[in-house]
């Protein structure tokens, strides 16, 4: 781990109250309050100094002091039992905090609910020998199965499962999909802004036959009363959601700007403001020629290295739902979840 230069008064620590890693944090350049909070996490055993890479430490060093302390407090309160990369998880918490500050959602609290039944989940993991890896964006079970030999499953082996109730987790999804065949992996997508699942998951089977069986048996399956799942063979996502764009920009201007910054852009989708048809609603969807092109564009646009029209944009995968028409889009509750969330925010924190 790289060493920093200066930052803090070594004499400010009190003997017996700090771990031996506290001084390393000070030497790296972290503020004393931030180093003290991180040291508290070390003492509670939720994180080791060796778990943090330079990316996480640099991000903490650049963060406003009070923001960094708040982020570390949330990290301390998080359930990290199934988090394998704690450094990346901490970076995810920092990214979410920045988004909340940027879009005036400070009052939004993470409320994941009761979570999965840990006893059932433990029994599944012990029985299957699979692992569960949790990040701020997804909960991934498996991949590959134990003792797997050969290449990963090919096209047609993955299914998309939508309309998942927010309170439902992998401890209920795994037994359901296991009935259709051997699971390669299951990825329940999470919303870091709320801590709840995003209503959909991807399940990869080891064979196409198992994937087709899942569609046959579980499409429109009532997993809860009045809660039917939507299951179909997965189609590669080609579309990105981009928020915080100036509402004055036209479809042509957006196409020109993002074509200069990313490769493979083939279509821009915008929706008119209900108050002014000449303006967009502060967000758009970008469609690319391939999933690889979309993935590379997402990585580039999310890097934080540049602004678009002077704006710090928010970029994410577009939720894999049917594209609504303009009439549907005018009803926020019926719009795709990214767009509905954005439209429901009004004009707070968004450029005109």
UniProtKB/TrEMBL annotation:
One of its GO terms (cellular component) is cytoplasm. GO terms for molecular function: RNA binding. Its main location: cytoplasm. The keyword Chloroplast does not apply. Residues 157-236, 238-320 form the RRM domain. It is found in: Cytoplasm. Keywords: Cytoplasm, Repeat, RNA-binding. InterPro entries: hnRNP_Q_AcD (IPR041337), HnRNP_R/Q_splicing_fac (IPR006535), Nucleotide-bd_a/b_plait_sf (IPR012677), RBD_domain_sf (IPR035979), RRM_dom (IPR000504). PANTHER family: HETEROGENEOUS NUCLEAR RIBONUCLEOPROTEIN. This is RRM domain-containing protein. It comes from Penaeus vannamei (Whiteleg shrimp). The lineage of its organism: Eukaryota, Metazoa, Ecdysozoa, Arthropoda, Crustacea.
């Amino acid at each position: 781990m790289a060493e920093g230069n200066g930052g803090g008064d070594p004499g400010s620590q009190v003997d017996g109250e700090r771990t031996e890693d506290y001084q390393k944090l000070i030497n790296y350049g972290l503020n004393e309050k931030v180093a003290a909070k991180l040291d508290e996490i070390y003492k509670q055993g939720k994180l080791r100094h060796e778990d943090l890479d330079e990316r996480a430490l640099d991000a903490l060093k650049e963060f406003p002091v009070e923001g960094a302390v708040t982020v570390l407090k949330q990290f301390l309160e998080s359930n990290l039992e199934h988090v394998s990369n704690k450094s990346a998880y901490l970076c995810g918490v920092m990214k979410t905090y920045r988004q909340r500050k940027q879009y005036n959602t400070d009052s939004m609290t993470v409320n994941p609910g009761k979570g999965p039944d840990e006893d059932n989940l433990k029994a599944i993991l012990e029985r299957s020998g699979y692992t569960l890896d949790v990040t701020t964006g997804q909960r991934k079970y498996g991949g590959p199965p134990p003792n797997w030999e050969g290449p990963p499953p090919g096209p047609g082996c993955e299914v998309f499962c939508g309309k998942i109730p927010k309170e439902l987790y992998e401890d209920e999804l795994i037994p359901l999909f296991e009935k259709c065949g051997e699971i390669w992996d299951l990825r329940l997508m999470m919303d870091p802004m709320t801590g709840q699942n995003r209503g959909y998951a991807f399940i990869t089977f080891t064979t196409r036959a198992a994937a087709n069986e899942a569609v046959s048996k579980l499409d429109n399956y009532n997993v809860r009363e009045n809660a039917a799942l939507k299951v179909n063979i997965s189609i590669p996502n080609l579309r990105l959601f981009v928020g915080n764009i100036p509402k004055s920009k036209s479809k042509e201007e957006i196409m020109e700007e993002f074509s200069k910054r990313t490769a493979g852009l083939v279509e821009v989708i915008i929706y008119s403001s209900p108050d002014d048809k000449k303006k967009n609603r502060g967000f758009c969807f970008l469609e690319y020629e391939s999933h690889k092109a979309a993935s590379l564009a997402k990585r580039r646009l999310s890097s934080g290295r540049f602004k678009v029209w002077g704006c710090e944009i928010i970029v994410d995968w577009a939720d894999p739902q049917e594209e609504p028409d303009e009439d549907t889009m005018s009803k926020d509750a019926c719009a795709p979840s990214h767009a509905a969330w954005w439209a429901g925010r009004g004009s707070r924190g968004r450029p005109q």
